Amino acid sequence: MDLQTLWFILIGVLFCGFLFLEGFDYGVGILLPFVGKSDKERRTIINSIGPVWDGNEVWLLTAGGAMFAAFPNWYATLFSGFYLALFLILIALIIRGVAFEFRSKDPRPSWRALWDGAIFVGSLLPALLWGVAFGNILRGVAIDASMTYVGSFFDLLNPYALVGGLVTLTLFILHGALFLELKTDGVVQERVRRTARRFWLPVTVLAVVFVAFSAFETDILSRLNVVNIAGLVVAVGALLATGYSIFQQRYGRAFLGTGLTILGVVALIFGTLFPRVMPSSLGFDLTIYNASSSAYTLQVMTAIALTLVPIVLAYQGWSYWVFRKRLTSESHLEY
Questions:
Q1: Which residues, other chains included, contact 60 with Cβ-Cβ below 8 Å and sequence gap of 6+?
Q2: For the chain, is the Cβ count within 10 Å smaller at the N or the C terminus?
Q3: Cα–Cα distance, 139 to 161 (Å, whole number)
Q4: What is the CA angle 287-146-275, rounded to 5?
Q5: Phi and psi based region of residue 41 (left: phi greater than 0; alpha: psi -120 to 50; beta: remaining)
Q6: Taking phi first (over 0 means left), then psi (-120 to 50 degrees means alpha), and beta for anything else, what does residue 332 get?
């Protein structure tokens, strides 16, 4: 395995971690106005992710940094071509982060309702736009011989990519509902159980539509390999197992199922792309070779990653262990 392939895999792993962890964050934020009817209920919901949401976003920063260092041409084309979409995601994440911090600064209902709305919007937009972005990357976009995106923002809003956005949006809502079921009790817990039962079927239908759509809109059928086939099998099997677990009221297994579904989808996307990083509809694909940094840069990055990444993983695992307990009606609430 060459270093370009290794870093392509590592970036895929970073996106797996980001979408698994931040996926339930987004879902919790989207569900906040609907399953939290009183201020105390909403504070309970926010506190379920309060200790971990900012750490979850570090996975995205690390993925972006790794992309910039290992594949600078991929980073440049992606962030210039998808500038407006990624700018909207950035603004949404900033507003969301500010809302978590500002909500508790004033007890007035109108103040807290304002920031609750900001958490909802700041969670909804990224959950939708990440699916749109990955759908466009998988489908291929207009990249010319100079590795420049020559399409428009509205070219990204095609039906296939929008279906991808709906898949990630509904999947994250289901993922978040199952996370809340494991972290809350009482009336909030009962509401998220009903939400999980209602959302499983729409998620499954949209996933089937997206896979079928992919057969016509992408070259996935001509690029079948062990990775994307395994990703598809895992995603489909885990999603079906999630539905069974929900109706059997085994919510821990259901949460694991939505997590595996997310990991399977990322494996499907990256397995189909390889060795490309951004397919071009004009025939000028970006690959792990023409988009990569020098061999020396990749060697230095590999040494640093092998040293520091295990420490970061150990720390984040420890933080989840510390805050593993379910929040009850008597829990101390901060937000």
A1: 18, 22
A2: N
A3: 8
A4: 5
A5: alpha
A6: beta
Helix H or strand E encompassing 276? strand 276-278
- How is residue 156 annotated by DSSP? G
Percentage of the chain with pLDDT > 70? 98
Q: For residues 175 and 258, is the Cβ–Cβ distance under 8 A?
A: yes
- Give me 79's structure tokens: 């962030």
- DSSP-derived letter for residue 158 is -
Cβ atoms within 10 A of the Cβ of 234, count?
17
Q: Identify the domain containing residue 39 by its residue range.
A: 3-322
Assess if residue 70 is contained within a domain.
Answer: yes
Task: Look at residue 160 and tell me if it is in a domain.
Answer: yes
Asked if residue 173 belongs to a domain, the reply is: yes
The strand pairing partners of 275, in sequence order, are none
How many domains in the chain? Answer: 1
| Backbone conformation region of residue 186, classed left if phi is above 0, alpha if psi is from -120 to 50, else beta | left
22: Cβ–Cβ under 8 A, 6 or more apart, which residues? Answer: 53, 56, 57, 59, 60, 126
The pLDDT of residue 332 is: 53
pLDDT in tens, 27-52: 999 999 999 988 889 998 999 888 88
CA–CA distance from 231 to each of 100, 127, 210, 288, 318 (Å)? 34, 21, 14, 21, 28
Model-level pTM greater than 0.90?
Answer: yes
User: What is the DSSP annotation of 2-29?
Assistant: -HHHHHHHHHHHHHHHHHHHHHHHHHHH
23 in any annotated domain: yes
